[in-house]
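Researcher: Go.
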Amino acid sequence: MSCRLAIVVPCYNEEEMLPITTPALLGKLDELVAEGLIDDDSYVLYVNDGSKDKTWDVIEAHHANDNRIKGLKLAGNVGHQFALTAGLITAKDSSDITISIDADLQDDINVFKDMILKYKEGCDIVYGVRNSRKKDSFFKRTTAQGFYKVMSLMGAKTIYNHADFRLMSKRAVEQFSNYKEINLYLRGIIPLIGYQTDCVYYERLERQKGESKYPLKKMLALAFEGITSFSVKPISLITVLGTIVVILSICAFIYAIISYFFGTVEPGWASLIVSIWFLGGVQLISVGLIGQYIGKIYVEVKHRPRYNIEKLLD
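Model: Structure:
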């Protein structure tokens, strides 16, 4: 049984990479069609996330040359997670399965076949998971592993070493479209859908052209978004921290009393200043963290659209 596949590719300033990405994806579609795994009207959907270069012009040119290249132009830059969401929801009505992949093709398109075979075996979601992080720098490897461990401790369901490279069936995407939150973290939301899942493993490749669209700043922002969007444990940790500070303060008070009676008290203000600064820092961090949660509530209750579509090439 064949099916119609939509490959959803979010793009931000990828004019250098698309001339490489397009023939690679079209070639892979041809292979899958020849093997009878997908229909010959399967296609690639590029989602232009407010690129500042000529990414959209390149998408239009590729669409003119081959109708299997579709384009979705968003009105402004909304971020990778929203752009990917826009592509998935747009593609769900005209496809049986979707595969999401970044334009840099660092995720291996050769595992598309394995993903589709697992779908035909009954899986609604198939995660693309990296075999290892040997090619990463020590810093990136350590922080990434630490992030997954923190997410696990916070109670969020995540797939270790999985980014946003995955296959989803039509009904899985339809269920995903029911999740309306503005504070979007797909790697945490998708596992909540349920249904039968599986993983395929691959070796991550090097980017051939252009620069990474996920520098350290964006990676940290995404990590913080994931933690605060899926767990209230950080607020509970504030209570624990406050309790520890109170206990330490009581111990310091008892020590001061004993020192007074033994006559070993020396005049000074250093300990007082340090304690004030310490407590002040704890309070500021606590208020700031709680403020992050309140800010998320503020954004959610507005119910503003997550993205606006400017143009669709179909």
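Model: The chain has a mean pLDDT of 79.
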